[in-house]
């Protein structure tokens, strides 16, 4: 049985101004591999899960380096 007529054919999308928390939550809860970014109602970019994970890991490592190099921690 073909359920195509009953399924939503639009790809998952978020506004350009959506928070990173929302984007991560959508990837986790929906189990999607990509997410369209929309600006003024038109396609703007695509976010792929692997690239997002790579970005988050890189950003986390930068934050850890900055904390270690901070004078606040009593170097």
CATH architect. name: Alpha-Beta Complex
Number of helices: 2
Number of DSSP E strands:
3
Rg from alpha-carbon coordinates: 18 Å
Overall residue-averaged pLDDT value: 87
Physical arrangement of strands within the biggest beta sheet:
1-2-3
User: How is the CATH topology named?
Assistant: CBS domain Like
Uncertain regions: pLDDT < 50 for 5+ in a row? none
Q: Tell me about the biggest sheet?
A: 3 strands, mixed
Distance between the termini: 67 Å
List the domain count as a whole number: 1
CATH C-level label = Alpha Beta
Beta-strand content: 15-25%
Order of helices and strands, N to C?
A: EHEEH
Helix content: 40-55%
Shape: elongated
Report on the structure:
There is one protein chain. With 75 residues, the chain is α+β, with helices and mostly antiparallel strands. Helices cover 41% and strands 21% of the residues. The protein contains 2 helices and 3 strands. The protein has a 3-stranded mixed β-sheet. The longest helix has 20 residues. The chain is elongated, with a radius of gyration of 18 Å.
């Amino acid at each position: 049985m073909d359920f195509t007529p009953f399924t939503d054919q639009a790809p998952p999308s978020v506004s350009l101004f959506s928070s990173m928390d929302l984007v991560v939550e959508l990837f986790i809860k929906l189990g999607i591999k990509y997410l369209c970014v929309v600006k003024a109602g038109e396609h703007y970019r695509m976010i792929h899960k692997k690239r997002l994970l790579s970005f988050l890991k890189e950003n986390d490592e930068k934050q850890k380096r900055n904390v270690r190099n901070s004078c606040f921690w009593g170097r």
